[in-house]
Amino acid sequence: MLMKRDLQAVKNFDFLARSFAHMQASGQQVNLQAVTGNMSHEQKMWFCERFNHYCIEESRAAALEH
């Protein structure tokens, strides 16, 4: 059961990272310190890696559109 709950938490964090990256790419300012404020160090590191990954994807997608 713990494994299933951990997997769901990872999926939720990944969804949030993608959503915040999309918001930032759309011109909204994202305060990562506020977003990750209650996360553990490991969670923050993972979240920021995923956020940066999705920011790069958003930049590439925008470049392809132009």
Automatic annotation (TrEMBL):
Pfam families attached to this UniProt entry: GlgS
SUPFAM superfamilies associated with the record: Glycogen synthesis protein GlgS (SSF109747)
InterPro entries the record matches: GlgS, GlgS_sf
Protein name: Glycogen synthesis protein GlgS
Source organism of this protein record: Cedecea neteri
